[in-house]
Amino acid sequence: MENNSNNNNNTKSNKLWLNGIVVVVILLTLFTIVGSLNDFNEILSTIKTMDNRFLWLALGASFLSFVFLSISNHIVLRALNKEISLVDGFLIQSIETFFNGITPFSSGAQPFQLYYYRKMGVPSNQATSVLAVNFIIFQTVSVTLSTIGIAIYFQDILNVMGHNIIYILIGYTINTTILVGLFLLGYVRTAYKLFEAIFTFFERFNWTKKTANRLKSRTEKFVGEFQGGVKFLFTKKRVFILSSLTKLISLALLYSTTVIIVRALGQTITTTNAFYLFYSSILAVTTMMFVPLPGASGGTEISFSLLLTGKMPSVQVVTVMLIWRIITYYLGLLFGFIGFLLLKTRRTIK
């Protein structure tokens, strides 16, 4: 058993390093592509003219957004389990930006968070409920903001993106569908039957039969515990409001960095333009999550650049995109990685 555990840990570590290498390669590729399509010296010259005070302000806003996200998630945790320390709970939440950032579809944090919750003595059903509720609230806030942005600026987005707006709409539809599915899973009592039917289908194949059979036998109990935790937490109005509010603050801080970076260029920004820049960054991130690369790389940068087309010269668009991506994505990786290193030093329950 000990050898198996060590092997599993080694496998996870290898995958972690591999994903980290992929992220670095993507960053280098991004700079290579930008350098080949644009005059990199001109971009560097533009960066040098930027007001450093605004750049530091953008860094501060981004950092605070990650802190508020961890606080928001921890509020939900404390509603179910008050035995875990504030520091341990906060650190477990902080690793979300790192593991989600280095995995496709932002799906890597939950398994690691679940692992550390259990190591810290939080029952698996409570941990699962906390992760699920946090994801539901995050999706609710994200979809709500995306809906407002599309409703207000649909014509503007269509004008700058043309037929490429279909990718924005596809991403928005996927996010909305996921949100509806999560609510159905949390509140429809017979939802487990759908998953049992799916596992029954995979039982037909030899290479998935064993796993599908094991999962099928656990489905009803797991869904029942999941629904119990979700319903309990959503009856806590104060928890729901505080968690939603802090997530909203987190996202507002994160996506306001676009406005701050553009302001660093010395441009005068009207209220209408400020809101357009704000919603452009929201849509570029939330609707491109279906891109199967860490951080939805490629899709996020392209959609963000297209959404800013016509708002400023092309060299400034590229400059803003690069700085924005570093501040909102790579800084988040660093924040989560530091949290992960600190978490590994904490004493766990054997």
From TrEMBL:
Q: Which GO terms describe its cellular component?
A: plasma membrane
**Membrane-protein topology:** Multi-pass membrane protein
Give the subcellular location.
Cell membrane
UniProt KW Membrane keyword = yes
| Principal subcellular localization | membrane
Alphabetized, the UniProt keywords read: Cell membrane, Membrane, Transmembrane, Transmembrane helix
What top-level branch of life does the organism fall under?
A: Bacteria
| Bilayer-crossing regions | 16-34, 54-76, 130-154, 166-188, 239-262, 274-295, 315-343
What name goes with this protein? Integral membrane protein
